[in-house]
Amino acid sequence: MAATELLTLTITELAPKIRAREVSPVELTEAALAQAERLQPTLGSFITLLHDAARKQAKEQEAAIMRGEYRGPLHGIPIGIKDNIATAGIRTTVGSKVLTDNIPTEDAEVVRRCKDAGAIIVGKENLEEFAAGATSNNPHYGAVHNPWKLDCVPGGSSGGSGANVAACVTFASLGTDLGGSVRLPGTFCGVVGLKQTFGRVSQRGLLVTSFNGDHIGPLTRSVRDSALMLQIIAGYDPLDPSTVPVPVTDYTARLGQAVRGLKMGMPTNHYFELLDPEVETAVRQAIAALEQLGMELREVPLPMMQYVGALRITGMADSVVTHEPFLAKHRQDYGPDVLYRTLAGQFVLGRDYSKAMKVQRLIKEEHARVLQEVDILVTPTAPVPAPPIGAKTVTVGGTAHQVRGPGSGVISRNTSPSNATGLPAVTVPCGFTAAGLPIGFQLIGRPFEEALLLQVAHAYEAVSPAHGQHPDCVSP
Amino acid sequence: MAIPHETLKAMIRDYQGFSLADDELDLIQPELDHYLQAIDQLQELDLATVFSSRLLRVQEGGQS
Lengths: 476, 64
Hints:
Chain A is an alpha/beta fold. Chain A is 36% helix and 15% strand. Chain A has helices spanning 3-7, 11-19, 25-43, 51-66, 109-116, 159-166, 183-189, 223-233, 277-292, 311-330, 336-343, 350-373, 416-421, 450-463, and strands at 46-49, 78-82, 120-125, 137-138, 142-143, 172-177, 192-195, 215-220, 263-267, 296-300, 376-380, 393-396, 399-402, 425-432, 438-444. In chain A, the strands form 3 sheets. Chain A has an 11-stranded mixed β-sheet, with helices on both faces. Chain A has a two-stranded antiparallel ribbon with strand order 4-5. In chain A, strands 12-13 form a two-stranded antiparallel sheet. Chain A is globular. The two termini of chain A are 16 Å apart. By secondary structure, chain B is mainly alpha-helical. Chain B is built from 2 helices and no strands. The chains are: A alpha/beta, B mainly alpha. The interface between A and B is large, with 44 and 37 residues.
């Protein structure tokens, strides 16, 4: 099988071939490393490529298969890890100059789980500095470029992860999501990005920058692959107090089941209020496609969302507290966007932090109530398609909005609420703009009901006009 | 309504914050504008009876 043909397969398609010894993990890893080498100058998607370690892992995994010790669908599959997730003995910069020499002594729990499942880690992926932004235009390690249109951002902060999955460098990547940082690269790069329920996946080994909004989640080229990845990383971690001992169900069990009769809620406020027209058209078509599949559409008001701006206040204060020790010693090593966005947090009053927490509670309760009436919520993932790299503002609804740095936030306005509610949310590609940029469709589910969420996402994916498409840069 | 630079500088001084020059205070202003706007909007909202709860309790309508 030709290298490009191999690289464009999904994990679901590859796994049986690896198990049957038709595809060798060594051959697959060499193909992924060659693709990474070829595209790194174009995409800038890695901070550290792990040639030797990946080759060693591939040989070990191949030997295990030859001994009959097949470990499951991730066995022998090359994946990427965002560079804010700890990898033992491998530097983990968090996209910063401050931590440029940081070499963790332990793997993050998710990395340990992926390695135990037989995955091969090909590299540490580029991201926004300290994962604090939506562009992945990193002042220290260079901008990540969107595989679909190289002069545009891939989204952020897991931009390297999104770009690698879209460009068929990795078959899956682990990103992190505090305000949409898995789902925004998912939508801008035309891949599937999942942020599962808060507490479902251990955050141990991640530089957590908020008190209750960080998540680690997978980017993949199909919904089924997303389910496979979640199956591996989900579970209680006694060393991470944020995880919850809810049983892990079979996330692939409902894939392929009919969605007829399920109810989807389309919010009448916030999520559809500020949209690029091409995004709105594509998302409304996606909703219509689910109706065609037999789902019932209900309009649902979410009046508390008018106060959603308050949620930013907790993030501001949490961020400055996280950065305090770094700022004290390394302030000069920060890029200006993250530095000044972070320093603004020192002016948040405790009174206002408390109010913001109460607003968070109200928004959580409102979403929980609505999700008793409907099975999922459907929204656009991002209000706009990927902006050009270096753009200061993006115009939507006739107004120019800041793209990065202090005052930014329009790109994540539809994703960040699910970080506050903790609800699971997934983005699925649903179309392209006339300029060829991907558009994403977000589905939000009930806590710990990822199986249902993925069932609907999978049903939509099968009829999506964007399904199975790859950017031109995939082929040499 | 923006917070005057002198107020911000006094807060930095009295609460041992990270120092910021005038031009740097200008840079953070958009973030503070969002903050003040969000807080201003909360004036109309009664938060007195809102309590925290860690777990989401969907079956009970989200009531804690």
